[in-house]
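Hi R.,

Here's the chain you asked about this morning:
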Amino acid sequence: MSAKRKVAELLGAAGIEINGDRPWDLQVHDERLYRRVLAEGSLGAGESYMDGWWDVEQFDEFFTRIQGARIDRKLRSLPMLYQILLSRLGNRQSRRRSKQVAEQHYDLSNHLYEAMLGPTMQYTCAYYGREGEETTLDEAQRAKLALVARKLHLEPGMRVLELGGGFGELARYLAAEHDCEVVSYNISRQQVGYARQICQGLPVDIRLQDYREAARDATEFDRVVSIGLMEHVGPKNYRGFFELAKSRLKAGGLALVHTIGGNDSRTTADPWITRYIFPGGVIPSEAQLTHAKEGLFVLEDWHNFGPDYDRTLMAWEANFLAAWPELKVSEGLDERFYRMWRYYLNSSAGGFRARGLNLWQMVFSQGDVPRYVPVR
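And here is the predicted structure, written out as tokens:
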């Protein structure tokens, strides 16, 4: 069977045609694509798109169909097998390696993120609430912050430990709106600089340190919160993460973890995502997280609003596309970056829309809370 015929067969299982007339059909510009995809899997597919070898009009729907048909599982390439081998031999999320994702992804220009994320600078899933409601990205991100605060049942004067602080908006919000003291750990210099600026004058301590450094501080906290860090922690470190959270939590305290979650346990990520977007990132599964917290925490609440990440990513792409004419000049970005960034946003949205990816918020206690009342 020819490479083209094999690829056509795979795409056909997802309802996609080569050079078809539907908006999600693949438009091929270079016939070398077929052999490259079969030889290199998702890495070859992503890089060939960046090279301009193919296009799709409705990118998000293309990826929804691809991931819904689980075509990635049928393309077990050498790069994927190599990533799996590396993950088994070593800890790809060690302190030294963890800095790579900060330098490669999070330390990109703040102007790029301001244009894409909007005023709240929240680089995690927004909370849109009920289906069909007319809600802007900014409103949904503020609703997410309020949801986190409600789930933590905050009281004025509480001390909050934040592991993985992003651009600082959650820390600012908890201090300004809920009268809490916050200590936040983050290894991205760009994000830390931004966070310190917006938190000036508030009882917020933004530390340019790996989250594991919190183990060196004997301070106990009323609450521990982690938004969007667990995707970078890595399977070999999940247990250590929960041990750290427990060691810093006062009696009667609560911990909240907000993370992307997968339906299958994995030790490595998609090779294209690993190379170009999140080096060392791994999406945890239910089994991996519940096993890691065993004997340490009681799981009080588990909330999945993964479909909201689809809407969030599509809103980010709309902002990115609107700002692109200015960004490519002011930031010196080229067509290859443009195609890479769109591939990243749309492939991620497809994963959530196909329900291969979820967004979980989990609330934990140490078993010393008489009754936790879930909120939505």
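One quick note: The mean pLDDT is 92.

Cheers,
M.
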